[in-house]
Structure formats: C-alpha cells, structure tokens
Amino acid sequence: MTVILAGDTIAAILRRAPVEQLEARMLIGHVTQLSRVQLITNAERVLNAAEAQQLATLFARRMAGEPMAYLLGEREFYGLSFQVSPAVLIPRPDTELLVELALQRLPQQGRVLDMGTGSGAIAIAIAHARPDAVVTALDVSEAALAVASANAHRHKARVECLRSDWFAALDGRQFDLIVSNPPYIVAGDRHLSEGDLRFEPIDALSDHADGLSALRIISEHAADHLSDDGWLLMEHGYDQAAAVRGLLAENGFGEVQSWRDLAQIERVSGGKKSRA
Ligand code: GLN
C-alpha cells in the first residue's frame, strides 16, 4: 500500500498515486478542497496529518473497488451536482435520456411523478429545467428520500418527496407524466457482482426476480394515475425493450415506442394513455 505522509506535496503524491491519475486528482481535490486548476498551481502544497490520513483511506477504498461517486459523495447528472450515498443508486448518463423525453412531453404546469427516485436526480433535473412543473418523487426507502430531499434543497427544486411502495400511498392522485428508473436487473445477474454495482443498493438494482416485476407493476397501474394523453416513460435493461413495449401495449397504452441511449441501446420505453 502507498504510504501518504503529512508533509508530502501534492506533486509527490500524484507521482506515486496507486489509482488512476484523474481519480487521484479528484480525491486530492476532495481532501484539500482545491479545484482542479488550484491543484496544478499549488503542486508544492503539503498535506497536513489529517489530510494525509483521509487521503490514504480514500486511496485504499478506491483500490478495493468502491465507486468514485461514493468516495466523493457526489455525482453530476444533467448538469447538476447530486449528493449520493450507498443508500442510492449512482445517477448514470444513460438516464439523462429519460429526462430529455420527459421534458419534451411535459405540459405547462404539468404534474410529474418519479417512481423510485433514489437520489432524486430525475425528478430534480426535471423540476430544475421546468420550474412551472409540479413534481412528486416517491421511494420506498426512507434513507433514499433523505438524500432526495437534500438534493432538492441543494438545487432549490420544488419537489414533493413521498414515501410509498410503488402506488400504495398515492390514493387517487393524478399526474400528466409518470417516469421511472426502477430496479430491473435479473436476480443473480453476474453484473451485480462486478464493478460499481457491488457497492450500490441491491434493492435499487434488482427486483430479485425476472427483472421485469417492477416494470410490470408500474405498467399495470400507471394509467389509473395519468390524465388523458399522459405519458408513462420507463428506463429498462439493454435486452428488455421488446418485453416492456409488450407490457405497455397489454395495458392499453398507445404510441408505444423505445428510444436509444448514447450507446445506441434501447434504454427507455414509453406509451401514451389512450382515452377510454
Ligand atoms: N443502469 C443500471 C446498470 O445496469 C441499473 C439501473 C437500474 O436497475 N435501474 O448499471
């Protein structure tokens, strides 16, 4: 293990950092509260004992595979910085597609529901881009809702945070748009034991079943909570687009379609509530 000592300069630590240079810079910046540019102009600044200790711990945790976002306590999504903790999934760039599609379909003063909000990234990105929107974010996890509330506060976004097991606490409430990035990884999928996913909350990643159970529940009940012509948009796994289009069609949605993410993978599917 690399020893980081009080009195070491930033330049010296970077030369023998045990993690990638970019990550080392980010972690040193986190510990010293210096920006990327300040790290360069302060290359001869020395670390004090507390900083050296903290940095050594962060390097060790990173080498053990912990995601950078959890070490830094934040991740950027849709141009905003979100607080994250192991209670929530780390926001993915792929999910920005869901935000784009939602914004394109949101009427003036539209009511939006984000189901399984986690860090609140989707709901808050929408509320931030469209201050006229009335946004509700729900999650079954109290710990996740605390993170979502903190993020809403951080971005002065008007988002109602509601504890609910999917539709359970919604009573008869109606929305103009429902979005969700639910747990959709199949139980036992090898990806769950690889990379960042090992450190993320399993209940946010997997339905512990065929991967479609949350997508199925949302598809079956969303229309009861949508206004006429309201859209349901759901993120899903790389091989689930056809199955999710099937769920939407079975449940009476029209204009059912899928959209591709940056990697050209069908990542979001949706449909419009057809008038009865
Ligand atoms: N997109 C995530 C992944 O595969 C999973 C997110 C989710 O289950 N909703 O890494």
TrEMBL record:
GO terms of molecular function: nucleic acid binding; peptide chain release factor N(5)-glutamine methyltransferase activity
Residues noted as binding substrate in the record, renumbered to the chain: N181, P182, P183, Y184
InterPro entries on file: DNA_methylase_N6_adenine_CS, HemK-like, N5-glutamine_MTase, PrmC_N, RF_methyltr_PrmC, SAM-dependent_MTases_sf, Small_mtfrase_dom
Catalysed reactions, as listed in the record: L-glutaminyl-[peptide chain release factor] + S-adenosyl-L-methionine = N(5)-methyl-L-glutaminyl-[peptide chain release factor] + S-adenosyl-L-homocysteine + H(+)
Keywords assigned: Methyltransferase, S-adenosyl-L-methionine, Transferase
Domain Methyltransferase small: 95-187
Gene Ontology BP annotations: methylation
Keyword Iron: no
Domain Release factor glutamine methyltransferase N-terminal: 11-73
CDD domains associated with the record: AdoMet_MTases
Keyword presence, Translocase: no
Enzyme class name: transferase
UniProt: S-adenosyl-L-methionine binding residues: G116, T117, G118, S119, G120, D139, W166, N181
EC number(s) given by UniProt: 2.1.1.297
HAMAP family xref list: RF_methyltr_PrmC (MF_02126)
Family to which this protein belongs: Belongs to the protein N5-glutamine methyltransferase family. PrmC subfamily.
Function (record text): Methylates the class 1 translation termination release factors RF1/PrfA and RF2/PrfB on the glutamine residue of the universally conserved GGQ motif.
Official protein name in the record: Release factor glutamine methyltransferase
Gene name for this UniProt entry: prmC
